[in-house]
Design a protein that fits this description.
By secondary structure, this protein is mainly alpha-helical. Helices cover about 50% and strands about 5% of the residues. It has a 3-stranded mixed sheet with strand order 2-1-3. α3 (about 75-85) packs antiparallel against α5, α3 (about 75-85) packs parallel to α8 and α5 crosses α10 (about 210-220). The longest helix has 23 residues, at about 10-35. It is globular, with a radius of gyration of 19 Å.
Length: about 280
């Protein structure tokens, strides 16, 4: 587990890092105060937050050429990339909460116009993997509707409700259901599944196997008001999510590039510098 930097004896490097973060947070506060507008990211519908704070995600085709595959929220892209690069071997990455103070600061970064966190340089600030993982999870759980829309909740559950089941048939069913999801939800679901699968492959180190991840991310990915007060119903949703994490490669490869008409759908178009790669082989064995 990575120790909280604030608990380490002060050194010149630590003091410099603290000063960088302090000045960065002050800048964010000033920018936020200068803009008299409602935060349009956390707690907002996915489609609405994407209008203000989205980045391109790219993937490679069979020839190895990158193409724009879709759009996801800045907070998901920035935190997801950070976690892939630095936190896959941190024990309890998504289970251990970060510092409330630093989490509030980091959330403010992703809710401050005009860049909404796109310019965040992780090397210039002092956040722990648990801070970043907690903010990532918070964004998903605070969405008004889970990533899998309410009107598809029962379809995803019913596909895995009967046992025994044929794995190939279930994969085919989920491919069809994912294709029916709204494009923004498709992109976000597949990006999150890809990230979680990277952690699951290193579960012997980070203690985050697919089952544990499904318990943690169920509220933000597959939940419904009619079942929130019925814990016994959560088990099936968790099994669905565990299956999706374990088989995510099949779903990622099944999604074609979006039509040209959808490549620039948002009012604030991402730049080339904002693009991130949706999936890679990091951590695969």
């Amino acid at each position: 587990m990575i120790a909280d930097p604030a608990a380490q004896p002060p050194t010149k490097a630590n003091l410099k890092a603290w000063w960088n973060q302090f000045t960065f947070v002050q800048k964010v506060k000033k920018e936020s105060e200068a803009k008299d507008e409602e935060h349009p990211v956390f707690g907002k519908p996915l489609g609405e937050s994407l209008k203000y704070a989205s980045v391109q995600i790219s993937t490679a085709n069979a020839s190895g050429e990158l193409y724009v595959w879709g759009y996801i929220p800045v907070v998901v892209a920035k935190c997801g990339l950070y976690l892939k690069e630095t936190a896959t071997e941190v024990a309890g990455t998504f289970r251990v909460n970060g510092s409330n103070k630093r989490m509030r600061e980091l959330q403010a970064v992703f809710e401050t116009p005009p860049r909404y966190g796109k310019s965040l340089d992780w090397k210039q600030v002092q956040y722990t993997p648990h801070d970043v993982a907690s903010v990532f999870r918070r964004y998903l759980t605070q969405m008004p509707e889970p990533v899998i829309p309410y009107d598809m909740y029962h379809d995803f559950r019913n596909a895995l409700a009967k046992e025994p089941y044929n794995q190939e048939e279930i994969i085919s069913t989920y491919k069809g259901l994912i294709r029916k999801m709204p494009r923004p939800n498709q992109y976000l679901l597949l990006y999150v599944l890809d990230l979680l699968s990277v952690f699951a492959r290193k579960a012997d180190i980070n203690l985050m196997n697919a089952s544990n991840l499904a318990v943690i991310f169920r509220p933000g990915l597959i939940s419904h008001p009619e079942h929130e007060m019925s814990p016994k119903e959560h088990s099936l949703s968790q099994r669905v999510l565990e299956f999706l994490i374990a088989q995510q490669d099949w779903f990622m490869l099944d999604i074609p590039p979006p039509p040209a008409s959808e490549l620039m759908p948002y009012s604030v178009a991402p730049t080339a510098d904002d693009a991130v790669v949706a999936s890679d082989d990091e951590g695969r064995e």
